[in-house]
Amino acid sequence: MIEFDQVHKAYEVEGRAIPALQPTDLAIQNGEIFGIVGHSGAGKSTLIRLINLLERPSGGRIVIDGEDVTGYGSDNLRAFRRQVGMIFQHFNLLWSKTVEDNIAFPMKLAGIYSKEEIRARVKELLERVGLTHHARKYPSQLSGGQKQRVGIARALACRPTILLCDEATSALDPQTTQSVLRLLADINRELGLTIVLITHEMDVVRRVCDRVAVMDAGEVVEMGPVTDVFLHPKHPTTRDFVFESEHIDEREMHEDFENAEGRILRLTFRGESTYKPLLGSVARETGVDFSILSGRIDRIKDTPYGQLTLSLVGGDLKAAQSALEAADVHVEVLR
Ligand SMILES: Nc1ncnc2c1ncn2[C@@H]1O[C@H](COP(=O)(O)OP(=O)(O)OP(=O)(O)O)[C@@H](O)[C@H]1O
């Protein structure tokens, strides 16, 4: 488990302290994919770089699997950093080395692996990331997605238990992003690795993360399971991220409401209830007429969900609302 106990960070710039992370408590469970989302300058990179002590905290304690690592000196730090792999937006590969040498590099640097161990591990990792046929190429001969796969293989070389991803898909096109996210999800499932990823795209969080923290101005302003945060965002920053990712314009939405009649409800279906033919039977039983103002059916990681905004007129509105709630639908009255 990765624990932050009142961890905070300010950078010293020309004798002035620039605050980047307010005192933060955090507990990231082993084996989960934890997303950190926020606008530029919110403090995401600072937070993730504190986990592997690339940045030192100005105060508070960082505890990894029960051990306080905050005060680690250079000896402890070398072993600790092998436990924590990291991948970057711009890959940070060694351009004069081949793919296989890039992957072998951290193992050689560690100085504790035999040549045979390194050779076998590189072969295994090339297979895992699908680059066996590119082993002798140089990074400049690869596509962006392939470069990031080299970055992932290199990060896994010393068998870390934690993988930190710093905007790992931000430089990739949407299709390549999908395949890299799928690879990260496979690695998480098959190796039980804890993954912490920072991103400014809620869609990345929706596809792979189990839990998410939303950051704003150096503070975690909302945190929870992705299904809860995504379907019921509370903080204005979270709402912005969710609406943006769903291409919802809040002002346009309210204009649509102005033109609609009756009661306006937002229904959220999760899991099994997403596919139930519920609306027709509720309308028949309660005599309520409805029209759909907006709707979406999608998935959050492995959970299907649907969200519908309806205007309802006539019939027994209260009974309709109760019938929906009884069928495990979350009902929010918007007007
Ligand atoms: N090395 C540094 N020295 C001084 N200030 C810094 C340093 N690194 C970050 N900051 C400042 O700390 C704040 C948080 O930056 P940070 O990079 O953690 O945010 P971020 O959410 O990762 O943003 P981005 O997505 O743009 O990288 C910003 O105000 C930034 O200018």
Automatic annotation (TrEMBL):
GO cellular component, one term: plasma membrane
Cross-referenced PROSITE patterns: ABC_TRANSPORTER_1, ABC_TRANSPORTER_2
Domain of life, source organism: Bacteria
Gene Ontology MF annotations: ATP binding; ATP hydrolysis activity
Subcellular location: Cell inner membrane
Keywords of the record: Amino-acid transport, ATP-binding, Cell inner membrane, Cell membrane, Membrane, Nucleotide-binding, Translocase, Transport
Transmembrane segments: none
Gene3D superfamilies: 3.30.70.260, P-loop containing nucleotide triphosphate hydrolases (3.40.50.300)
Domain ABC transporter span(s) in chain numbering: 2-242
Membrane disposition: Peripheral membrane protein
GO BP annotations listed: amino acid transport
Record family assignment: Belongs to the ABC transporter superfamily.
Role noted for this protein: Part of the ABC transporter FtsEX involved in cellular division. Important for assembly or stability of the septal ring.
Protein name: Cell division ATP-binding protein FtsE
Source organism per UniProt: Marinobacter nanhaiticus D15-8W
